[in-house]
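ASSEMBLY PREDICTION REQUEST
Request ID: AP-0331
Submitted by: J.K., bench scientist
Number of chains: two
Total residues: 460
Priority: normal
Notes: Please return the full assembly, not individual chains.
Input sequences:
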Amino acid sequence: MEHLIAYGPALLRGTGLTVTVALCAMLLATLLGALGAAAKIAGGRFARGAAQTYSTLVRGVPELVLMLLAFYGGQRLVNSLALLMGYERGFDISPFAAGVGVIGFVYGAYMTETFRGAWLAVPKGQWEAAQASGMSPWLTLRRIMAPQVMRHALPGYANIWLVLIKATAIVSIIGLQDVVNIADKAGKSLREPFTFFLAVMAIFLILTSLSGFVFRFIEKRVNRGGAA
Amino acid sequence: MNLDLIFRHASDLLRGVWTTLWLTGSSLAIGLALATLCAVILTERIPVLDWLVRAFVYVFRGTPLLVQLYLVYYGLSQFPEIRRSFLWPWLREPWFCALLVFSLNTAAYTAEILRGAISNLRRGELEAAVAYGMSPVTRLRRITLPAAFRQALPQYSNEVVFMLHGSAIASVITIQDILGVGRTINARYYVTYEGFVSAAVLYLAVTFVVVAIFRRLEKRLMRHLAPVAAPR
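STATUS: Completed
Returned structure:
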């Protein structure tokens, strides 16, 4: 127990990194999800095909495989590209970039479905009425569609966040010093792995419970104009 | 990419597929049995037990699978009592730890899915069963569970794919599943792509098969709900 207290600051730093990875990945996933949903709803044949391939690939391959491939394979790829362009020294792909990139990429595919479903849940008449009253497409998007799509998307969005934050644990495997990685090292060197992993579980429980709380609050706020 | 290398290790990779299927399949089977029990305890509100089940579901759904696996595989050795107990020959085996953790993890998620499905059943069906004089156990066996399983199937197929993909972390504790074999190939030949790419392709193939099976199963079990062709 005293070991755990001594390692408190390190674990806290690791937790900070876990949350940072999760937030960055969530941001990336949101962007990719919006892009994917736009491609599926309004895209031409090529865009729809690309979006379909994207979601099929992600749903078929475990995120750990993609992460190892991006981290080790991406490193080789970047190095050979650098060599091809005449740089003697390659660049490094940091575990942070690989972790955020892959987790964002994977959950972007799930986000695509959430956004697409939320868009389709808003009655068509809303868009048409806005057009009829002379709003530009951009203004319609911002004033009419976005607030309503948000309502429908929020439960799915919250769900993805809860899965995503747990998925960040695997970045410890490629050496990122997140809370799992720090607990793993400390637990093994101090011969108290159980204590440390139990602490990590408690930390994740706090994070997920807290997120659930925050999302319930936001949901209430977004729906204050009437239930969606 | 050295395809020759991949074909030379085709039998190892197939053995990896078998390990993944075996591990995931057994975990899902044990997990489903446990989840059914948990879901019944939750919906019947059996005192004390339902609190335990709720705590179990909360902990396993709120923490990463990887940490759960580490806690059991690395963590339990911290206690000399466990190392001396009769359970140790099993608990020190990676496959047993993976099976244990995966089963509990999928049980927690599935319990929640089943609980939702049971609470969504039409009241009339259950009331009719009561009116016919069915005992609670018969009602559960004949009416509640079959209907709940059917309703939960689409969500459960998602859980199966999640478990299949989640099982890839077994390779971290040295299990030679699909990813484990891929990592071994990479390490032995100092290559980067061959092992991981073959693993990715194999997971993709297995996922497709699993999804196809579930789609057929869904169609079969939902026959009575399928739209009927209009009479000509």
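REVIEWER COMMENTS: Chain B has one domain: 3-224.
SIGN-OFF: pending second reviewer
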